[in-house]
Amino acid sequence: MRRAFAALRCSLPTAAIAVLLGLTGQGAAAPPIRVVVNSAEVTLTPPATHTAGHVVAPLKPILASMGCTLLWDAKTKTLTAVRGRSVLRLWPGKREALLDGRTILLPLAPMLRGGVVCGPVRPAAAALGAAVTWDASRQRLQIAVAGTQPLQPPVGAVTREKAIAIATEYLKSINCYPKKVIAVEAHEAQAPANNYWEEVAGRGKIVSGAPLRPCWIVHFDYESLVPSAWMEVYVDAVTGKVVGGQQTR
After folding, report:
1. Separation of alpha carbons 77 and 93, rounded Å
2. DSSP for residue 65
3. What percent of the chain lies above the pLDDT cut of 70?
4. Distance separating alpha carbons of residues 98 and 102, to the nearest angstrom
5. I need a labelling partner for 150 at 20 to 30 A (CA). Which of 2, 84, 107, 213 fits?
6. 114-165, pLDDT tens digit by residue?
7. End-to-end CA distance of the chain
8. How far apart are CA 62 and CA 54, in angstroms?
């Protein structure tokens, strides 16, 4: 059989050999992995790959297509994704992630590929409320999300710098400002007016199921006995009033 194939190979041009190999299934390339959010395919650079049974791909374009507000902190190498009331934080090289302040364990640690944060898509998307299905025959990861858009502060409202100043002074006024702050960031998103810091200060009670409002979420990373300690202050984007927050516990 080998001699017959060798003789046939010698008598055929290169193009014909390529066709023959394709028909016999040898040398056929696997189709590329596609990631689709609702009905729109997400452009991914670098492309998605299979790693240890999971689809690993650039997370920022996928989460952005889901309607998430994204923040990359270059100092702490933290990717934060906010969707509705859910906040997910990921770190390249760490399987541990934070979802609404709770530690969750990812099946694979995210990684940097050419400066792009790549990670297991299914657990990241599912943590933020998406339904994820895998179509093996089409090599397609389908992500279904309800169409929610972040509420944006109106033009002329509180600026980012002002929001950071308000949050800083507020924490100092209730003696909760960290002794050693590592980084401070702020991003626009929906946030619940949950009265969190008022309860910490002994001035009120946390409001369960508080309505969402357009806010600046001011995030403080700081040194503590608790690993990756952080706290957040929600500053109303219109009034500049501190309306809520959360922190590691």
Report:
1. 10
2. H
3. 84
4. 5
5. 107
6. 889 999 999 999 999 999 999 999 999 999 988 644 445 454 578 889 999 9
7. 70
8. 15
Share of the chain above pLDDT 90, in %: 47
Q: In b/e form, how buried is each residue of 175-187, taking b as 16+ CB within 10 angstroms? A: ebbbeeebeebbb
pLDDT at 230: 85
34-144 and 160-247: identical CATH topology: no
Tokens of 51: 């790693």
Task: Say what the pLDDT of residue 11 is.
Answer: 47
pTM of the model: 0.55
Where exactly are the structural domains of the chain?
Answer: 1-29, 34-144, 160-247
Q: Is the distance from CB of 140 to CB of 164 less than 8 angstroms?
A: no
Residues 6+ apart with CB under 8 A from 243: 191, 193, 194, 195, 213, 215, 234, 235, 236
**Letter for the amino acid at 246?**
Q
The contacts found for 28-32 with CB under 8 angstroms, 24 or more apart, are: 30/139, 31/138, 31/139, 32/139
**What does the DSSP assignment read for 2-34?**
HHHHHHHHHHS-HHHHHHHHHHTTTTPPPPPPE
The residue assigned the tokens 């998307």 is 125
CATH number belonging to the domain at 34-144, selected among 3.30.457.10, 3.65.10.10, 2.60.40.10, 3.30.565.10: 3.30.457.10
